[in-house]
Amino acid sequence: MNIKSINIAPSQLCFDIKVREMCKSCKRYGTKASCPPYVESVEYYKKLLSTYKHGILYYKEFKVDDRSQWRKLGSSSSLEIHNHLLKVRKDLIQQGHYFVVVFGAGSCKMCAKCTFPCHQPDKSIQPLEGTGVDIFKLLKGLNIPFTFPIKDSFLRVGVVLYD
């Protein structure tokens, strides 16, 4: 299955401080330069992201056929969306869109070990959850089906905003 997309208005992004709080339960919390606590506040992103004119949500469903491959699938699926978002950002900039920002699925996985500050900021993507966006609420509002808790499949999601 290919990566799907749907146009969104930046005003459709739903922010909730509880989403950002959940980052503290991630095993990568405090280890990634593009994740909390090293990124701006939910209030900052709520104000900033609403200023963009256009948005696209990208998503792909991944089947979990073999639970023993869960960790590998988690990393490869995140990287697939990540690379797609980088290509979209590059394409939009080449089309003349000056302001383009992308947010990915989970923590950045570009480097084996993260450095502070990031030494590849042009390739690093911040997780959408780290901004405080309630992805479940966004998906429900767009009528995109997903299962939680994860059983046999999961979605990877990314968002591109631009003017």
Q: How many β-strands, per DSSP?
A: 5
> Which shape, going by the Cα principal axes?
globular
Structural class: alpha+beta
Q: Averaged pLDDT, please?
A: 91
Approximately how much beta-strand content do the residues carry? 15-25%
Q: What is the distance, rounded to the nearest whole angstrom, between the alpha carbons of the first and last residues?
A: 29 Å
- Major sheet details: 5 strands, mixed
**What would you report as the Rg, rounded to the nearest angstrom?**
15 Å
Helical residue percent band = 25-40%
Poorly predicted regions: none
Task: Give an overview of the whole structure.
This protein is of the alpha+beta class. The protein has one domain. It has four helices and five strands, in the order βααβαββαβ. The chain has helices at residues 17-22, 42-49, 70-94, 135-141; strands at 4-8, 54-63, 100-104, 126-127, 153-162. A five-stranded mixed β-sheet has the order 1-2-5-3-4, with helices on one face. The chain is globular. It starts with a strand and ends with a strand.
